[in-house]
Amino acid sequence: MMASDGGSTMMMEKEFPKTEKRKTKYDVIIIGAGPAGYTAGIYCSRARHETLILSGILPGGQLVNTTDVENYPGFENGIMGPDLMITMRKQTERMGTTIIDDEVIDVDFRHKPFKILTASEEYECKAVIIATGASPRKLGIAGEQTFGGRGVSYCATCDGPFFRNQEIIVVGGGDSAVEEATFLTKFGSKVHLIHRKDQLRASKVMQERAMSNPKIQIHWNSILEDIQGKERVSSAVLTDVKSGQKTTLTAGAVFVAIGHEPNTKIFVDRIELDGQGYIKLKENTKTNVPGVFAAGDVHDHRYRQAITAAGYGCMAAIDVDRYLVENK
């Protein structure tokens, strides 16, 4: 290059570090990174399949918002939910699974290879495991988020034992709420069941069971308006929907049991879902699309436990391995 003073000089070219292009083609792509997704990743990678997990915007699923986990095997003294998910992630990566914290925004299962689209990249794969889980419906009231994991829970089986000999509140009127209230009487000194109507939606058998239990008090025509406490839940405010009268209940925990929403919006019209939006399985973990499998709470609306989700992740990975071997 000619210098401005008429003399000649050499312009040294700046060296930029070479960056590797992100790999976009895999044998298996797992959508979701909770117990089901991580377990599936471990098994797929150990079967020597090139595996990618797209974790979404909340890696670890619901367990990242859970404090003590006492019922996951292998941890004698329990483990914090986030710590369990970090441990699972490290183990999955050690097996050779690639994990990218990106959110899937669309999928194309019409042709092979399948296409998985995120906000920044398009990936291709031979098989897919959907492990996006389900999210509990929230009340959307004051204190609910503040005390999440500190007295506010969405799973009686998971957290009930932490509230022995305390008064407990359960919100809801369906089978799940009545079942959870009944289950919690094993631990709580008293269970307050809060329902906004004057009749439960639960089956007659469940209703009779709750009404005959001396530990359960049903608060009809009532809504939970506020959850209060300092470090943990200590009380909650009810409002009578007819009279407007407010009542403060002393309680160590609030269990919200008004249903779950499966995280399946991006799969509408892509695979078969049931009336509630959960993925319908045809055989074992297979969906109606050959090569697409599902694992965990995204199809399981009955158990919804970390251990069952992990079990389904194992099953889906074994089904994927058989599918890939048979369709070489």
Describe the 3D structure.
The protein has 328 residues and is α/β, with parallel strands linked by helices. 21% of the residues lie in helices and 27% in strands. Strands 1, 2, 5, 6, 7, 8 and 19 form a seven-stranded mixed beta sheet that branches. Strands 10-17-11-12-13 form a five-stranded parallel beta sheet, covered by helices on one side. A three-stranded antiparallel beta sheet has the order 14-15-16, with no helix packed on it. Helix 4 links the parallel strand 11 (167-171) and strand 12. Helix 1 (35-46) packs parallel to helix 6 and helix 4 runs parallel beside helix 5 (204-211). The N and C termini lie far apart (56 Å). The relative contact order is 0.17. Residues 1-19 have low confidence and may be disordered.
Percent strand equals 25-35%
Oligomer: single chain
Helix content: 10-25%
> Mean of residue pLDDT?
91
Task: Measure the end-to-end span.
Answer: 56 Å
Give the tally of β-strands: 19
Instruction: Report low-confidence residues grouped into runs of 5 or more.
Output: 1-19
**Rg from C-alpha positions?**
25 Å
Main β sheet profile: 7 strands, mixed
Order of helices and strands: EHEEEHEEEEEEHEHEHEEEEEEEH
Count of helix runs: 6
Topology summary:
Layout: E1 25-31, H1 35-46, E2 51-54, E3 68-69, E4 79-80, H2 81-94, E5 98-100, E6 104-108, E7 114-118, E8 122-130, E9 134-136, E10 152-153, H3 156-159, E11 167-171, H4 175-184, E12 190-194, H5 204-211, E13 216-219, E14 222-229, E15 233-240, E16 246-250, E17 253-256, E18 260-262, E19 292-294, H6 306-326
